[in-house]
Amino acid sequence: xxxxxxxxxxxxxxxxxxxxxxxxxxxxxxxxxxxxxxxxxxxxxxxxxxxxxxxxxxxxxxxxxxxxxxxxxxxxxxxxxxxxxxxxxxxxxxxxxxxxxxxxxxxxxxxxxxxxxxxxxxxxxxxxxxxxxxxxxxxxxxxxxxxxxxxxxxxxxxxxxxxxxxxxxxxxxxxxxxxxxxxxxxxxxxxxxxxxxxxxxxxxxxxxxxxxxxxxxxxxxxxxxxxxxxxxxxxxxxxxxxxxxxxxxxxxxxxxxxx
Length: 259
Prior knowledge:
By secondary structure, the protein is mostly helical. It is about 40% helix and about 0% strand. The chain has a domain at about 120-240: Cytochrome c-like domain (Cytochrome Bc1 Complex, Chain D, domain 2, Orthogonal Bundle), CATH 1.10.760.
C-alpha cells in the first residue's frame, strides 16, 4: 500500500469505521437511556413540584368530550351554565359549601341518560359494577361488600329496606340506611332510589367520603351504564307486583302461598 493510503499506520477506511462506531454508540446510549420520571415522582424543574403535567387550558385530547358535555358532567344545562364543571375535586373541610357538583340541590343533576340504554348496556353495566363496585357495595347493592367484612367503612345501601338479616337497622343513626350521604350533609334527606341518576355519575367521577373516584378506571359511558344497572338493582327490589310479566306474577304468588 502506498504512503498516501496510510495515515499514522492505519488505512483511512479503518478510521472512518472507528468514527462511525463511536458516533453510533453515543446515539444509542442517549436514545436508550433518556431521562424520565416515574408516576408521582417529584420534579424540581416545575414550581408546583409535580412531574406529571396537566393539560393546558383549552387543550382537548383526542376523543375527549368537552367539559360541558352532558356525557361527562351529570349536571343539567342550567346547573352547567350557572356553575361550570369543576376542574379538581375539593376535599370536604368543615361546614359544607356549595361547589360545582356538590349535592346541595337534586335539581342540579340530570334524571335521564345521555344515550339510550339497551339490554347490552345493562349487561355491560353489570359487568363493570361487578368489577369495580361489588367489593364495597356488594352484589345486591346493599352495602355488604367484602371490605365491610374486613372492618372498612360500610357504604350506604341503594335500597331502603333490608335485603339480608345482617344489615344495620334502617332507622338507626343520623344517616338513614339507603339514603344519600352526600345530600344529607346539606340537610337533604333523600333515598338513593330517588336521587337523580346524574348524582350516581357524579360520585363515580369524583368520589365522595370513603369512596375514591373511578374516572380513570371507568370511561364516562361505562359510568352511565353502571348507574343504569344500579337503577335495575333498585327496581328489582321495589318493583310493584302488577308491573311484572304474567309468568313472574304467577311464580311470585306461588312463593307467597308457600310461606
